[in-house]
Sequence to fold (120 residues):
Amino acid sequence: MQLFLYEGHTDFVFLNLLAQYGLVLSFFIILILLLLISRLIAVSNMMKDSFGKLLTIGGIALITIELIYNIGMNFGYLPLAGMPLPFISYGLMPTLIHAIVIGVVLSAYRQKDLQFNIHS
Fold:
């Protein structure tokens, strides 16, 4: 059976992968993204610098909201919007933005032991 999905490579990539490869790959993708989010939460808890912690929490929020909204949108629970699946959807800008977010989090994690005192 051939299934036609409008924008099956961008916004509806999760539904396309579910239709083509089944539940195993879909659960694997969700598991990998949840492991990424849990690792980002662990990194956020290790930070001493409040600005780095806020940057990390912002990255967590961005990836989590996009993951939940994309899956909810694919199954019809949320209205349709141009919300990409993090690191999976096709396109330059979503991939570039997610790479920049992870780069900022890694940069903040690299300096996690530094504590800046502005008022001294």
